[in-house]
Amino acid sequence: MLINNTLQMYLESRKGNVRESTIQSHTYRLRRWLEFCSEQGIESAEDIEQKHFDQFKVGRRDEDELSPATLKGQMDTLRVYIQYLERVGAVKNGLSESVPSISLKLEDSRNERIVTDDEAHRILETLDRYHYATKLHAFFILGWRSSARISSLRALDLEDFSPGEQYVYFRERDSTELKNGVLGERPVALSEETTEVLSDYIKHHRIDNTDQFGREPFFSSNQGRVHRNTFRRWSYKLTCPAFRSLDTECDGYHKNRKCDDAVSPHGIRRGSITYFLRNGLPEKVVSDRANVSEKVLDKHYDKRSQMEKMEQRRDYLNNI
């Protein structure tokens, strides 16, 4: 059985038994598995071996830098998918038992590394002064101000930016899926300052190019659409202390590799969400803007201390 045909078969078998959001999540995770299989030259499900699961896990953990909690979700979904392939006779029985199981410690379920509001302010100051309206400036100001995921930023086309009405519209398309699929589609309002920076980026620094599907990506490259790993490199460069302070030395920064203090794009997103919450934006508003449930927001993104939350509740109560 061709492995590219198995994903749709699996998803069809799940419909009606799980929520649409679960289908979208499994689609996103398993497409990464199919990409891995393509890279390894695996065309038939019969060619899947135990070693491939270990290689996939290591790649997702080290190259894609998944947190333990996210990696657990990835491997759990892969195991369920392989169990389905066992039932339909596409792979040998018992193969699913070879999919590595990820055990979480309590601290693993919460990744604490974020960009603080003070760091973000200094990064934006440096960008505004020395790198105005460059791709780095456009990436960081939009990521910080919109709390968007990499998948959302990468999916943006020029037509999704409305400078006149000051918003961007994150949309699900076949070649650029959002984390939550069509449920992740949403317009996000922008400030006048952010809109001006993005407009100047398009006018002066954006590479005029299309991707392989003829679309005009907002973040473009000489090859077409900017790769996910490029966003990570940008994030590591911008969040390295040496970028925002000339007095700071960092070998990793000057040798174009990740330094110990640099933060991933997801750390920018978490920091942005925490910043909005600390400044009194209601959780429902932040949840809708960042496309994350309030339950997940509270568990994984909200870095306010219990005392901070208490003082904010006090401010509300004082007005009653």
Architecture overview:
With 320 residues, this protein is mostly helical. The protein folds into two domains: 3-108, Tyrosine recombinase, N-terminal domain (DNA polymerase, domain 1, Orthogonal Bundle), CATH 1.10.150; 117-301, hpI Integrase, Chain A. The protein contains 15 helices and five strands. It has helices at 3-14, 20-39, 50-63, 68-87, 117-130, 135-146, 150-155, 192-204, 228-239, 241-244, 251-254, 265-278, 283-290, 294-301, 306-318, and strands spanning 161-162, 167-170, 186-189, 220-221, 224-225. The protein has a three-stranded antiparallel β-sheet with strand order 1-2-3. A two-stranded antiparallel ribbon has the order 4-5. Helix 2 packs across helix 4 (68-87) and helix 5 runs antiparallel to helix 6. The longest helix has 20 residues, at 20-39. The radius of gyration is 21 Å and the shape is globular. The protein starts with a helix and ends with a helix. The relative contact order is 0.10. The model is unreliable at 106-111 (pLDDT under 50).
Low-confidence regions: 106-111
- In the CATH hierarchy, the architecture of the largest domain is Orthogonal Bundle
Q: What fold name stands as the CATH topology of the largest domain?
A: hpI Integrase, Chain A
Class by helix and strand content? mainly alpha
Name the helix and strand elements from N-terminus to C-terminus, one letter apiece. HHHHHHHEEEHEEHHHHHHH
- Total strands: 5
Numbering strands along the chain, what is their spatial order in the largest sheet? 1-2-3
Number of H- or I-type helical stretches: 15
Q: How much β-strand is present in the residues?
A: under 5%
Overall body shape: globular
